[in-house]
Amino acid sequence: MQILHNTNFDFIRWRWHALILSSTLIIAGLIFALAHGGVPLGIDFSGGTLVVLQFDQPVHEDQVRKALDVVPGDKVVQKYGDDSAHQIMIRLPQVNDAEKGFSLERGATGASDAIKKAGLPSFKVIRTEVVGPVVGADLQEKGLYATLFSILGLTVYIALRFRLIFAVGAIIATFHDIFIVFTMLAFFNYELSLNIVAAVLTIIGYSVNDTIVIFDRVRENARLLRREPLDKVVNLSVNQTLGRTIITSGVTFLSVVALYLFGGEVLRGFAFAMIVGIISGTYSTVFIAATIAIILSGRKASAGRAAVPVEEAVERPRRTGGGRNVRVS
Amino acid sequence: MNKSLRWRILAIAGVIAICAWAIYPPSQTVRLGLDLKGGVHLILRVQTDDALRLETETAMERLREELVKGGAASVTATAQSVSEFQIAGVTPDHDAQLRQAAAEIEQTYDRDSGVNGTYSFKMKPNIANQLRTETVDQAIRTIERRVNELGVAEPIVAKQGAQDQIMVELPGVTDVSHAKEIIRSTSLLELKLVEQGPVSSKEQLMTNGAVPPDTEIVPGVPSGRAAEGGTVYYLVHRVPVVSGRDLRTAKPSLDENNRPAVSFSLKPDGATKFGNFTGSNIGRYLAIVLDKRVVSAPVIEGRISDEGRIAGNFTQQEAQDLSLTLRSGALPASLTYLEERTIGPSLGADSIRAGVVASLVGLGLVVLFMLAFYKLSGINAIVAMTVNLLVLMALMVYFHATMTLPGIAGFILTIGMGVDSNVLIFERIKEELLASKGVRAAVQAGFDRVFLTILDTHVASLIAAAFLFQFGTGPIRGFATTLTIGLLTNVFTSVFVSRALFEVVLGQSRTAKISI
Predict the structure, then answer these.
(1) Is B316 found in the same domain as B268?
(2) Which of A139, A145, A262 is closest, CB to CB, to B357?
(3) What is the 3-state secondary structure (H, E, C) of B429-491?
(4) Domain stops at, among B339, B374, B406
């Protein structure tokens, strides 16, 4: 089956539209995030206590919430997993003196004691997580470093293997994906956890992976079509790899959707971030990474060509380019 | 079939056979992480200040005693911090004596003289650091022994991140609070001679408002039942006769009233010391001090050399736990918990089920997708993917990597990366076919041209995975491990295996057609 046969979409023509769309999305996301106090931090980063209880019979969150009134602090009570599982997740805030030994677990035992007293159906604790402030701050720092250093490492690698402007394009596309993922996480009220950081790092790898495939083709084509301007070569390369981009994204997308639907509660945030990341990564590969490289190179290299209206400059050589390609490669 | 291809096929068959053998049977060879198996993950901080404080106080006390012995009665000593102390009131005629006494500790402490016969001592920074490191190492060894005595299968006790943190992972443990209690109890055992007591208030033990020299006040529970009254106090000698270090072994037993107690025996050195001591102190009381509290203070009835018993209102469980922690040695410093994660075994089982279902559904979708797009060549991709997963599993078993929930996500992503390589190659072959080359040439060009791309994308992903591993903890590391191994095996299967398969197919048909 061949879904795309010798496509000739003029992606480069849409670069400004794409940049405006992306900027709008990111700015809207930032405003939304700021209005809601940023992406909510999960207990991995904020510290605190998380308890998941499994009840014998169905209980409503409100019942649990009421039972927990005696426990001080802002609590979050949520249904966890499938309805049939009768699982409830309780989150308690960081206790100030939590570093002092056993008081770290006081929150967890206090909560289950309070529920026992309230006469709710019997339950067992199936998961407890207690993170002290030291570890929380530590994990925050580590997550940030992991992200920044991997981006730096990738930039250096692309700059070495390709050209610096490509590296800049790839990195801007990567940041674009990260911003989009965080915006969506904030919008759908997911908490930032270690798993989400893992997802973000995977998305960085994935997005750069996608970009490299196109850049590789650009490098190859640039050698064959020495006299063509970069924007034309890029457009050709994007078209040539379009089949691959769509199939790969489609397949990965399917497996991640499977993870989202069947992977259980623990991986849901991870899978959600991956879904958003794959969509954004595919889009940014085509519309952001390459166009940034072109914009950067255009400013440096071709002052004369810039006088020609963009559409015309792209339109004309594109057709001949498409035909010539078949012969050359 | 040419010779090189025959060798390659043999090599692939060999790899598959070895991998299949390595992971058989999967239920026993694949190590499951805490999130799948259930268990406890703890991060503890070793209060290394404790060890420094002990070192400083010992040095300070020794110096003071030395001076007092030499007649400098007015000397006072105060600890400034965990690594600093000050000696004051040294008169000029005792100056030489101080210098001589201080020479003993000058390898550990820097001395600084102030006005009016004041001297301050500060532990050298490198010594302090060394002491902290040693304390953490010793704590790790002690915890390891305790965890092993608890009978936990495949526990992990390791230094974690910052200098003074220890990570403990106990798979399959359900009684968390008991495990925590065992790990955390300092179990510092000291046997000290009682000077006075028990009395109900500290003041009764002081002479002129101060504790008599070379002694200290230690709280304890009344010798009768614990409920009878509040805390009582004993005045005991500061220097213990024997301590936990002199223990050879300890085991739960019963006292003369058939109540749970702990019997211990001493190492030869300690036994000699203890024998002499008890022999010359018959009729006096001996305080058994555990973690700075007197648990009992029996009368010395005769010379005891190498056997002893600790009685003190224990329950059966307490006696058992105490003998365990005594056997494994005292912790060099107290511990605090920084992080605790407990996964119940039922939740772990649910997660395995969810992970397996998600993987199978993902795998099924990919198989359908590839068959629909690439027809018979899709089978090639599926074979490559299957070999990839098999080799990945085998390598994980070989490296004793732990399978975690994010690790399963890593599997799914490996599938994605593998399919990506296949798609890249297949799409390129299609293009080359369109350029009306021969089938063989098209396949060859497809693999050759795409190899560089695959290399670039994989190196880039490896860079990301490396940082993930470097900064990640627990489950995230599991993910990074799976992804890294998966990326490496993927280059082997999508390039080497897939190409050999194509050549086998092409080699047999004369017309050299390809279904792609």
Answers:
(1) yes
(2) A262
(3) HHHHHHCCCCHHHHHHHHHHHHHHHHHHHHHHHHHHHHHHHHHCCHHHHHHHHHHHHHHHHHH
(4) B339
In a domain, B112, yes or no: no
- B308, B339, B370 — which closes off a domain? B339
Task: Name which of A126, A250, A264 is nearest B346 (Cβ-Cβ).
Answer: A126
CATH assignment of the domain containing B197: 3.30.1360.200
* Whether residue B292 sits in one domain with residue B174: yes
Same domain, yes or no: B282 and B142: yes
In whole angstroms, what is the distance from residue B123 CA to residue A69 CA? 51
ipTM here = 0.76
CATH superfamily of A12-41+136-328: Multidrug efflux transporter AcrB transmembrane domain (1.20.1640.10)
Distance CA B34, CA B348 (A): 8
CB within 8 Å of chain B, chain A residues 196-215:
197-198, 201-202, 204-206, 208-209, 212-213
SS3 B211: coil
Searching chain B, which residue's CA lies closest to the CA of residue A45? B339
Token pair of B242 as six digits:
């024997």
How would you write the pLDDT of chain B (516 residues) with one tens digit per residue? 577 888 899 999 999 999 988 888 877 777 788 888 888 888 888 888 888 888 888 788 778 877 887 777 778 888 888 888 888 888 877 777 778 778 878 888 888 888 777 888 899 899 889 889 888 988 888 888 888 877 777 788 888 876 788 989 888 887 777 888 888 877 778 888 888 877 877 777 777 777 777 788 888 876 544 445 577 888 888 778 887 777 888 888 888 888 888 888 888 888 888 888 888 888 888 888 877 888 878 878 778 777 888 777 778 888 888 888 778 777 778 888 888 888 888 888 888 888 888 888 888 888 898 898 888 889 999 999 899 989 998 998 888 887 887 787 788 778 888 888 999 899 889 888 888 778 888 888 889 988 988 988 899 888 888 887 887 766 677 788 888 999 999 999 988 999 998 888 887 665 567 777
Angle A156-A159-A163 from CA coordinates, rounded to 5°: 175
Q: A48-130 maps to which CATH number?
A: 3.30.70.3400
Residue of B nearest to A198 (CA): B476
Facing residues of B31 across strands?
B402
